[in-house]
């Protein structure tokens, strides 16, 4: 058996390019290298050369006890390690290159070449439609990727999605995919945007773009003439206006992290950098009970203006296209955290006292955990669990950047926790895995195929998982309060799960009326009198872009039932106004 066999991708498994045994080249398809190979073989077999040009792998146990010292082996010895963690999907590169055979009439010869397929790398860099629908948001997928330039990649993908309709028109008119079928629709969109409107294509796909560049430019010029514009940037503005007619953009919500500096100091730094805080009557009924006037206030902000939120104390709001971004110093120093307002409501609903022991059952990427640490003032202990290793690493970096010191992070399934080991835990925050149907960043690019879709089979599986997680949280012996939340608008993942948990907890828990006098925008859906008068599903809250200018969220708060009045209302958090 050969020690190392090298193939060209298009001939994998049929015609080896080179065979190496014991560190020696014993076969090569390159005629010019055969002569050199013979000299190398003669040189490699002399003296101690055979011991120096290859490595012998042995078991770790044999290596640690020095068993090879008695064997008289002169080769370099290494222990075998990490082989059990290898798997086909992550560590094996799928070879899907194929030869292209053409006949030349002028030379009467067959020409053998190969086509470049869509590689795993291109799939990882394009989490566009199926990935958004099945795995998560664009930002979270890019955060988990191995790309070194995540900000640039995010910008490129977002821009590509924004101008998808224009790019499809240009690609169709240029007939690019008829010649380069291996690219696929999504990769072609990305490359065309980059070459016509971005920084230009580099790397392995440059040749495909070069072959079609003239046709792409001609197609782009056609649409510039059609829409009567002189510059390509003006063509993009045309489609910006078309898209603005049926899409809405959420404002930038930024949470002020006070674990190092006080809010006044942070706001002062912000205003010293030419940002202006716009004052308004935050206690006015028109701003608190209805959201129309509040939306108008946000839309009227300038690029360097911001306001304080009308509910969450440490939350400030910028217009969606404001000049502030994550490269700003207060982000890099961990004093700012960009997080949607609806996500802020989850830890505020839990509202643990300082020194409490809390469980965050599905914690990554850690934004809500950082808010919990602020409520606890970095005291007590937060047990944070997440099953995804990549997301856990991302969360480690996130909490470190934001100066959180009271988190014990574990890469494990919350369902596998032994509740008796956490007898000091009094609060549990459970932001469960869900369909993400309420996330506006998955719907705002005019991709109507993603809007209002409902995968019944997937929802059934998610609901089963969510039920198990909530019932498991209720099994912890000393837990007093549980907050269950999803970023979903589907009742299957929301009221159905809460209804199931209440009917299967032996009256141990009851629902708490969340923010009763201060949140009138959306409440849990009651199907009958039992839901309203016995289970009190209207105690839950819902958020949506239409009513709150936020993502769609569902939040339910459970409290240990001490046989007191079921209509007891939640004590308002000091962080909620």
From TrEMBL:
GO biological process: rRNA base methylation
Family: Belongs to the class I-like SAM-binding methyltransferase superfamily. RsmB/NOP family.
Species: Brachionus calyciflorus
Ranges for domain SAM-dependent MTase RsmB/NOP-type: 242-561
SUPFAM superfamilies: S-adenosyl-L-methionine-dependent methyltransferases
InterPro entries: MeTrfase_RsmB-F_NOP2_cat, MeTrfase_RsmB-F_NOP2_dom, NSUN5_RCM1_N, RCMT, SAM-dependent_MTases_sf, Urease_asu_c
Residue stretches making up the Urease domain: 1-135
Name assigned to this protein: NSUN5
Annotated Gene Ontology cellular component terms: nucleolus
Record-listed S-adenosyl-L-methionine binding positions: 362-368, 386, 413, 431
GO MF, one example: RNA binding
Keyword S-adenosyl-L-methionine assigned: yes
Lineage of the organism: Eukaryota, Metazoa, Spiralia, Gnathifera, Rotifera
Coiled coil: none
Active site residues of this protein: 487 (nucleophile)
Annotated signal peptide: none
Entry keywords, A to Z: Methyltransferase, RNA-binding, S-adenosyl-L-methionine, Transferase
């Amino acid at each position: 058996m050969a020690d190392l066999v090298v193939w060209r991708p298009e001939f994998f498994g049929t015609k080896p390019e080179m065979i190496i045994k014991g560190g020696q080249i014993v076969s090569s398809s390159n005629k010019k290298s055969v002569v050199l190979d013979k000299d190398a073989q003669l040189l490699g077999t002399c003296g101690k050369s055979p011991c120096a040009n290859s490595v012998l792998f042995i078991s770790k146990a044999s290596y640690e006890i020095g068993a090879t010292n008695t064997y008289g082996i002169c080769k370099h010895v290494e222990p075998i390690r990490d082989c059990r963690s290898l798997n086909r999907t992550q560590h094996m590169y799928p070879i899907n290159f194929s030869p292209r055979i053409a006949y030349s009439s002028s030379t009467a010869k067959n020409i053998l070449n190969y086509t470049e397929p869509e590689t795993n790398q291109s799939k990882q860099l394009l989490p566009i439609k199926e990935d958004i629908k099945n795995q998560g948001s664009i930002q979270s997928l890019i955060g988990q990727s191995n790309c070194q330039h995540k900000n640039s990649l995010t910008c490129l993908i977002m821009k590509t999605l924004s101008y998808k309709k224009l790019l499809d028109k240009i690609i169709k008119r240029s007939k690019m995919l008829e010649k380069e079928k291996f690219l696929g629709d999504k990769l072609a969109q990305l490359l065309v945007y980059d070459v016509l409107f971005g920084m230009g294509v580099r790397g392995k796909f440059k040749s495909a773009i070069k072959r079609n560049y003239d046709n792409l430019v001609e197609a782009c010029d056609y649409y510039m003439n059609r829409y009567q514009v002189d510059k390509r940037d003006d063509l993009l503005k045309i489609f910006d206006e078309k898209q603005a007619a049926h899409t809405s953009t959420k404002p930038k919500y930024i949470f002020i992290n006070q674990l190092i500096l006080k809010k006044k100091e942070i706001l002062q730094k912000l205003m010293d950098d030419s940002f202006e805080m716009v004052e308004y009557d935050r206690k006015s009924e028109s701003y608190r009970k209805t959201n129309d006037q509040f939306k108008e206030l946000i839309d009227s902000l300038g690029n360097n203006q911001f306001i304080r939120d009308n509910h969450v104390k440490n939350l400030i709001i910028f217009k969606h296209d404001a000049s502030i971004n994550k490269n700003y110093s207060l982000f890099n120093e961990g004093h700012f955290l960009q997080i949607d307002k609806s996500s802020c409501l989850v830890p505020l609903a839990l509202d643990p006292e300082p020194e409490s022991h809390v469980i965050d059952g599905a914690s990554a990427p850690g934004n809500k955990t950082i808010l919990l640490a602020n409520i606890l003032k970095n005291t007590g202990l937060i047990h944070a669990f997440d099953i995804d290793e990549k997301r856990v690493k991302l969360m480690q970096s996130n909490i470190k950047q934001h100066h959180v010191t009271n988190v014990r992070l574990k890469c494990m399934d919350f369902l596998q926790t032994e509740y008796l080991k956490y007898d000091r835990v009094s609060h549990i925050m459970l932001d469960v895995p869900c369909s993400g149907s309420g996330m506006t960043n998955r719907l705002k690019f005019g991709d109507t195929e993603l809007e209002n879709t409902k995968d019944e089979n997937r929802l059934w599986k998610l609901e089963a998982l969510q039920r198990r997680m909530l019932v498991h949280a209720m099994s912890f012996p000393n837990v007093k309060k549980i907050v269950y939340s999803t970023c979903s608008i589907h009742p299957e993942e929301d009221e159905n799960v809460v209804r199931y948990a209440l009917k299967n907890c032996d009256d141990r828990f009851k629902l708490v009326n969340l923010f009763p006098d201060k949140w009138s925008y959306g409440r849990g859906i009651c199907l009958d009198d039992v839901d309203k008068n016995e289970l009190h599903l209207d105690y839950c809250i819902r958020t949506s872009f239409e009513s709150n200018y936020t993502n769609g969220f569902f939040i339910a708060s459970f409290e240990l039932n001490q046989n007191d009045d079921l209509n007891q209302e939640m004590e308002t958090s000091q962080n909620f106004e």
